[in-house]
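Sorry to interrupt, but I need a hand with the structure work. Could you add the entry underneath, on a fresh line?
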Amino acid sequence: MTQMFEKAAEINKTGMAKLMKTVSTVSKTNQTAGIEWADFAKESYAAGSETMKKLAGARTLQAAMEIQGAYLKASFERLQSQAKVMSDLYQGLAKDVGAPLAGDTATFDPKAFFDTKTFFDPKAFFDTKTFFDPKAFFDAKNFPKFPAVTAPKLAA
């Protein structure tokens, strides 16, 4: 039984170290993602402001449509670029987080950790004679008492 607790303590210690490393990696990735989104927002705002200035100076409807079309195209390209950056960032996070777990299947052997003969002994867990007593379970004295319900009197 003490071996089980020693193994649990060892697994807990190594697991906690891996957990803290993972939390640190996730935190750094989210910080980087926040910076990337802030830069993207600045670029988008600057592009939108510049486009509004150009639209205010447009003399014809065709010129305004060309300016608007160029803005939409550039905006879509910026969004694609941002999506690629975010995708690469979180793919790297997934690889970093999954790397410590990739080789851990051999370190935890449930058969070696839990000795089924001593870990769960049904005889030690409950006594079949006292665990479920049908006579006591179905005894009318053990059922809750409800107040008697009478039918309301109808006015004549």
